[in-house]
Amino acid sequence: PLLMMVVTAVILLVVAAASLVIENRRHTLREAGRENLNVARLVSFHTLYVLNTSRLLLESIADHVNAHGLAHFHSEEGKRFLLNRTQDYPDLQSMLLIDKNGQLLVGATLPFPPPKVSYGDRDYFLAHAGGQDWVFGEQLLSRTQGRRGVTVSRTIRSESGAFEGIVLLTIESTHFDQMFQGVRGKGNEEITIFRDDGAIFARYPEIPVGRRFPHASVFPKARESRSGVYEATSVFDERLRLVAFERVGDFPLIVVSSQIREEILASWWRFCLVVVFALLIGFAWLGSAGRYAFRSVIQNETLQLELARLARTDSLTDLANRRHFTELVEKELSRSQRYGGEL
Q: Does residue 254 have a pLDDT over 90?
């Protein structure tokens, strides 16, 4: 019974430790997933506000341009108009009017006449020329200022609906960097705003402009749900990550916040070491207590055997005494009666 108690105690300790470790791992991943999802939602909410504000601004400028004609704004007055409209938006890198051939007409922060720059080969311009009214461009380098930014643009059409040009604003990448830094949790998440075609709208940390990731694991997930948490290998560093995503309203954008799975579980591994250390201490204590108990039992059994021997032996001659003789006689009488033999 004592051995069974010790073995049972060891098994219970191992089962309790294993359950604790498994539950802690599940809790660690669950909390990290919740943290990543909160980050993705905060970024999505802020981006939604920025894009809605940008869309209202571009809509009002496009209406004004339609009312006066695009040629009217190819002037100092046009420059002042754009500059006045953008004064309440300090994070804007530039506001440009571009004609139907892709030539820069006027810029809010550029001198007039502006430098001769063509945007006819830009993806956003080609999309507008192809019939799109709104384009949320990918991250790129400005041709007039050389800084990194992301574009939002709207088509300008004539009364007949013919393509006349575009009005475009560029939001500084530093604006998103500051926002990303403000919402990142303790896990130092990597944050990416993907366009639906895999282009990078904004990202922290930055990567070279122009790269696209149409096969990123988030796109199949985003087609099934507006938000979620899952594990996948990153397209950026090919490491296993815990990924959370959130769609940005009705815009063709998805916010992704991810952490390296190994980094998330680093605290769990430390917890495992503590549990193993505590388990070893428990085993050592249980072993010492069991050893002491076994020794006591053996000593008691030895004493009982010695007492029984002394009770049946004459201390002077070391021969069997009358008590022993009586026990043997009773045993032999019982055997004789049971089998019917002679005694």
A: yes
